[in-house]
Task: structure prediction
Amino acid sequence: MKTEPDTFSLADLEKRAGGIEPWNGVRNYQARNFIRAMRVGDRVLFYHSSCEIPGVAGLAEVASAPRADETQFDPKSDFYDAGAKRADPRWTLVDVHFVAAFPKFVPLTTLREQAGLKKMRLLAPGNRLSVLPVTPEEYQLICQLGGTKKK
DNA sequence: GCCAACGTTGGC
DNA sequence: GCCAACGTTGGC
Result:
């Protein structure tokens, strides 16, 4: 899951009550569908984008079932969607729970050097999705690069 | 700040 | 349903 650290970083997540934040504001159908496939306990790589050194900052996990993103119904929200209906919500979120900051930040440049990550969705040209699937192998390799024992 | 990539919108 | 225009993302 991607976030701009200037807006909301892994350190910000850790400081939240219980280390939990509802991941609102996703407004792309493909990304939404990935969220809808999430289950409690799913592991998350926490990626910092649009910053000085983009890369994976650490680990989080899914802490709720997918549910309606309330900001779609709030006219005052930046994420308001006039076309979204209560009876059939258009946009979905999960709660994200802090797990750990990597002892070693894993920059995007390092990810690109890995033979084992050639097919990773995050590294595909023109990728713009804020939520992307990761294979267990990719997850494990990136944990090793980050200096965290695999879980 | 630039630009490539891609999603969305809206005219037809 | 096509496609040009436009907006956004995000690395560099």
